[in-house]
Amino acid sequence: MKVLVTGGAGFIGSHLVDALVERGDEVLVVDDLSTGDQRNLNPRARFHRLDIRESAAADLVRGERPDVISHHAAQMSVSRSVAEPVFDAEVNVLGSLNLARAAVDAGSRIVFASTGGALYGDAAVLPTAETAPAWPVSPYGISKLAFEHYLYGFRRQYGLNYAALRYANVYGPRQNPHGEAGVVAIFCEGLLGKRLFKIHGEGTDTRDYVYVDDVVRANLLALDSEVCDHFNVGTGRQADTNTIYRLVAERMGRPTEVEHGPPRPGDLRASALDASLLERTLGWKPEVSLEEGIAQTVDWFLAQERSQAGTNL
């Protein structure tokens, strides 16, 4: 199978590229490296440094005619989307449309990395199923939902084959602290002395944390399927911010006391996703526990710190 991964130098995208290469697929990576890291690039994938808004990105799709486009490239910061909603829409809506039109011409399936928490907001029912009303309040969530609607419209009009995966808070090695769900990376870097941070509010807000390897498995199942639907990808379980900090600090052998700051306006109070539709349809279930995933993530950050210290000697 030929797979084009946008955002393939980023956190989730690079893990997916590694898994695709490992199983023998032909993989192309499109990334402008604005937030992706060139060190994440798999040398066995063909890399194209392109912005998804450029006509060259669409030309690449039409020329290569990949079987599937795994679309992870995005403006991924909720706070930046609030400050710069036009930029957010340019990337997440117009850039994605540029790819979708090319996918129709090339006969490619699209598997779209969408969002869960930012889509449903403070939902009345937890864990939240795909049938819940989606009324996002951040431009980030709005742009993700908008492109989901475009995908549905393109399927009805042009026969586009697609699946949308609505992620919970994804964490793991290579995580970017600047993304929608970067709290684990923020804590890791903060406890290594690389950034200042405070927990916003009392730390009792909850999220659904899903490990990146489980998210990659969900993507592989969706890439190999012909099913067109919108799927939650999460554990269905909630963990509050204080618990995440404690697990990170204990794994690092650091004090578990932390400074708290004022709450951020608009932050969700609670979020968890019901992924039973994905289980029934594609057989996916999360396999990595929160404690195991945090340990693996912290160990990766520690290894990166040791490697950097050795390089600077």
What does this structure look like?
The protein has eleven helices and 13 strands. The chain is of the alpha/beta class and 313 residues long. The protein has one domain: 3-Layer(aba) Sandwich (Rossmann fold). The chain has a seven-stranded parallel β-sheet, with helices on both faces. It has a two-stranded parallel ribbon with strand order 7-10. A two-stranded parallel sheet has the order 8-13. Strand 1 (2-6), helix 1 and strand 2 (26-31) form a beta-alpha-beta unit. Helix 7 packs across helix 11. The longest helix has 22 residues, at 85-106.
What is the CATH T-level topology?
A: Rossmann fold
| Helical/strand content category | alpha/beta
Largest sheet data: 7 strands, parallel
Mean pLDDT: 95
Helix content bin: 40-55%
Shape: globular
Order the strands across the largest sheet as they lie in space: 3-2-1-4-5-6-11
**SSE string, helix = H, strand = E?**
EHEEHEHHEHHEEHEEEHEEHEHH
Number of domains: 1
